[in-house]
Specification:
The protein has 319 residues and is α/β, with parallel strands linked by helices.
Length: 319
């Protein structure tokens, strides 16, 4: 089969996943160097994958228009777990299977959230700056132990965050549509309604998929309900928050800070949050570790091989 790779940096550091496909006798074309993403034009995506039978995709858009332009397309293997950039109904209409790498990205993303928390809890950066300025200036910091973290969304990423936060001695609250009593013991996490979670949490991490129902769910009303002096963290999707409302909450000092890894369009170098000193911004690198990318690349390739053999696991299949 002809397999086209559009996921960026797919083989730049570790070629094993490509070799897996080639060794199975498939024709592989890697366009990861094109650096496609959320902001890539549909025309370029369609042109790149036009005659592909299988695509290993990143965050670039696979809309009805793109899928229509790919008459041979049988499968999209998503490197990652989010699939908001892919038109599910178009996939169903054209008989295109959609796979994703469930169970591999979550740990790295949770680690990124903890990095944000430790940044605000310890301010090593500030203390290091003082030392390099030859100032022996001790800073009293809040620490993480005993603080409350509220997790909006409690899927794979939320659970991974909960496990790490509990080890740091944090109290973990979570909110989701389908809570389970067993999670209190499994993850040391207590269910709370959204308003309670927002009013009690020192850190609020949003870990929900982007859908029409979650679009800009983090808006002025949401931020107003957050505890004064708390920290907002978004590693999900930029579209779930109103960036201007977040900027206002930071500028008014109602919120003490924010850790933001995702943006409405990417690459993003002109976010309104650049004007906020208390906003810590990273370029969508929560899953971006060498180990994690190697695993996700191999899993995305394995999902392709499993699909061809007819053995793609249901947990890795969206449609």
């Amino acid at each position: 089969m002809k397999i086209v790779i559009t996921a960026r940096n797919f083989s730049s550091t570790e070629p094993h996943a490509v070799k897996m496909l080639q060794d199975a006798g498939h024709e592989v074309h890697d366009y990861g160097h094109l650096d496609m993403g959320m902001g890539t034009e549909e025309a370029l995506v369609a042109q790149t994958v036009a005659d592909a039978e299988i695509v290993i995709a990143g965050l670039e858009p696979y809309t009805e228009s793109v899928i229509n332009a790919c008459p041979n397309l049988k499968m999209i293997s998503r490197r990652g777990i989010g699939y908001d950039s892919i038109d599910i109904e178009a996939c169903k209409k054209h008989g295109v299977t959609l796979g994703r790498t469930v169970g591999h990205v979550e740990a790295a993303v949770a680690e990124h959230v903890m990095a944000y928390i430790l940044y605000f809890a310890r301010r090593i950066d500030l203390q290091n700056t003082h030392m390099h300025e030859k100032k022996w200036q001790r800073t009293l910091v809040p620490g993480a132990k005993g603080r409350v973290i509220g997790l909006v969304g409690f899927g794979g990423i939320g659970k991974e965050i909960a496990e790490r936060a509990a080890v740091f001695g944090m109290e973990v609250l979570y909110y989701c549509r389908h809570p389970k009593a067993a999670w209190k013991d499994m993850y040391k996490a207590k269910y709370a309604d959204l308003d309670t979670l927002l009013s009690r949490s020192d850190y609020v991490s949003v870990n929900v998929p982007f859908t029409e129902s979650t679009r800009e769910m983090c808006n002025k009303a949401f931020f107003d309900k957050m505890k004064a002096g708390s920290i907002f963290i978004n590693i999900a999707r930029g579209q779930i928050m109103n960036v201007h409302d977040l900027k206002s909450a930071l500028c008014s000092e109602h919120l003490a800070g924010a850790g933001i890894d995702v943006f409405d369009t990417e690459p993003c170098t002109d976010s309104p949050l650049l004007e906020c000193e208390t906003a810590v911004l990273t370029p969508h690198t929560a899953p971006y570790t060498s180990e994690n990318f190697t695993i996700m690349n191999e899993k995305a390739a394995q999902n392709v091989l499993d699909y061809i053999k007819g053995t793609l696991a249901e947990k890795n299949r969206v449609v």
